[in-house]
Amino acid sequence: MNRIEPPTFFDDHAALRALASNCRLRSYPVLADHVDAISEGYVKYVEANGNAHAISNVQLPDDVADFLKNHYKSPPSAISYIGEIRRRSGIRTCPMCGALRAGTLDHLLPKEDFPEFAIFGPNLVPGCSCNTLRGRILTGGPNERILHPYYDDVLRERLLVARIEDLGAVPRICLRSLLDSGHADYASVAFHIDQLVNRTLVVDYLGAEWVKLVQRPKSLSTHFRRDPPDRETLVDILKAELDRADDHHESLNNWDSIFLAGLLDASVIDWLFERFSRPGRSSGSPLISLRG
Ligand SMILES: [Zn+2]
Prior knowledge:
2 domains; 4 strands; 10 helices; mainly alpha; binds zinc ion; two-stranded antiparallel sheet
């Protein structure tokens, strides 16, 4: 999850006009009759800051809706920016769920329900499989909606940590929201976590990181080649690793940071320090014996 800047290297309105006036495309000439209405929809989308509750459909005949969806699938030269956005977005942390790679481009407002935004740059967001997993889910109750990485500034804040309980070889792990229930975006953030982030493999990833930590502590931080001499040093090491993960992934809500922030819970710190300082344990060895 992350707030990112929308792509600005093209003009959606000019591209739409160029597309509609291309007589070699099957959408010619019918698309031209709807350019003004679609353009107006684009303006309203931006005015609504991508808030799905505040965006109304532009009424389009079925054939025009299909032309736009097909143009997204096989972009003619007028909208070649689609390929370029996809190329630029692949290597980043997924702004939708925090997975460590995005990999695809997808529609924030699903093209099946909002074909008028099928080729609209601000509606095309980098994502991973999470966007397919949420399907066409977009809104819930009045304040519940999928967050928009180009508009929702709350995504700049640390929103999620791992909650790790029943500490041991196989702890219970889930996601915990850090947002205060009085925050204006509380319901939307909770909805986004529930309907999108929780459908991914995030909990499996956090579980695998825990196994790595307790079996090979130095795989989490090279500082763990030696056991931390006191609780304060352990906290400092984990805070430094969290800083590093935030910087490296350019996001406070990437899956590594979600894990590391969860380790800073007092009960987890207590458990880890007790394990690091067990009498007779050799430095760098597992925190849990495979034999239990
Ligand atoms: Zn994702």
